[in-house]
Design brief:
By secondary structure, this protein is of the alpha/beta class. The chain has ten helices and 13 strands. The strands form three sheets. Strands 1, 2, 3, 4, 7, 8, 9, 10 and 13 form a nine-stranded mixed sheet that branches. Strands 5-6 form a two-stranded antiparallel ribbon.
């Protein structure tokens, strides 16, 4: 009799947990993202109905059985299954991104011919020529007269010049609304015969930006302008991003609703997770995060750390990359990247170290972030 009551109590508990899970999914379904994500979440909701049937069937047989081990096993199974939609990081999947094109873009930008893409070098010039070629192939338009937008900055007690590359996809009707994607194309150059290829830092971000531009033309918001910026001189001090923010602030009737910075998105830690900063600029980030993890099984984490000499090292990710000038200007921003890894700023940051499946999944997650509804952005 005691076993019978215990089983009934456990059944009630598990059904309650399942009910909470269904309510959560219903809440999420009120915040649809792109059609592909919404379709995927619909499949998850259908799975919940099957769950309820399974609980009743299994408990009917277990309650009539005196085998407590069977009940324990079933309880464990249901618990693990209940967490299934929140499981992520093992095998991220991608739905539309072209892995071959991502690899080709990274292969070219990180090739020895480009000499590490250091600002002001011949390698940087070659990088710009390739990026302009890709912008043209994608039928993008220059923001100004040309894709190249020069700027001046001062570093190491001398005056220098960098060159951002800025492309746009205009809204179908004239609009003041803008979204911005940044990904720096410069890297560390070379020392002697050693070339710092910078495959992850940051050819990966530039390649993802190309892919998002192509997808925007198919599924982007027709009422919003998209600006795509390959920034220069990020490595010596975020100078390209500072110049960009100053230029857009001096452009009348231009409302930047959200900026997204992509920097090092191809070499994941374990489990495979992309890290986000600036999530406080989204009003419904928790719900959005759960939807995206159900969509492509890619973990999205809000904080990162790294080990050094057995101790956790706190890194100032706010000031770490091109999103910081947007933050200082009061423009809502997001930053996607991976923690510093053993190849970071070494000659071993090469294309063979990248996880292309992970990069493809991050690219699709980035697209969902840059296309969120205006109501989900905490406008400042």
């Amino acid at each position: 009799m005691g076993f019978q009551l215990t089983a009934l109590s456990l059944k009630a508990l598990i059904i309650k947990l399942l009910s909470l899970k269904v309510l959560t999914l219903k809440a999420l379904s009120l915040k649809p993202l792109s059609p592909s994500v919404s379709k995927n979440n619909e499949l998850v909701r259908h799975g919940q109905a099957h769950y309820s049937q399974l609980v009743n069937q299994k408990f009917s047989s277990v309650i009539s059985s005196p085998n407590a081990h069977t009940l324990s096993a079933l309880l464990l199974c249901l618990f693990l299954s209940g967490c299934a939609s929140q499981n992520c990081g093992n095998s991220p999947v991608n739905h539309w991104s072209n892995q071959s094109q991502l690899l080709e873009d990274i292969r070219v930008l990180s090739s020895p011919k480009f000499e590490g893409r250091k600002t002001g070098t011949y390698g940087a010039e070659l990088s710009r020529e390739y990026i302009k070629k890709r912008f043209t192939e994608l039928h993008l338009s220059p923001w100004q007269d040309e894709f190249e937008v020069p700027f001046n900055y001062r570093s190491s007690f001398s005056d220098k010049q960098g060159i951002n590359l800025i492309a746009t996809i205009k809204a179908k009707q004239p609009s003041q609304r803008w979204r911005v994607i940044t990904a720096h194309y410069d890297h560390l150059g070379k020392k002697g015969n050693k070339v710092f290829a910078g495959a992850d830092d940051n050819a990966s971000g530039v390649a993802a930006m190309f892919a998002i531009a192509e997808q925007w033309q198919q599924q982007g918001n027709e009422d919003i302008n998209l600006m795509l910026v390959a920034t220069d001189a990020e490595e010596p001090g975020l100078f390209g991003s500072y110049a960009l923010v100053e230029q857009v602030q001096n452009t009348p009737q231009m409302l930047i609703e959200l900026s997204l910075n992509l920097d090092m998105i191809g070499t994941p830690s374990r489990p495979k997770a992309i890290y986000i900063e600036g999530e406080k600029n989204l009003t419904e980030f928790s719900q959005l995060k759960t939807q995206l993890q159900d969509y492509n099984q890619l973990c999205v984490r809000e904080s990162r750390s790294r080990m050094k000499n057995g101790s956790m090292v706190k890194i100032d990710w706010l000031r770490a990359s091109d999103h910081y000038p947007f933050h200082k200007a009061g423009i809502p921003w997001l930053y996607l990247g991976v923690p510093s890894h053993k190849y970071y700023h070494t000659i071993n940051d090469t294309i063979d170290k990248l996880d292309i499946g992970f990069l493809a999944a991050v690219t699709e997650t980035a697209f969902e972030f840059i296309t969120v509804n205006k109501q989900q952005i905490a406008l400042q």
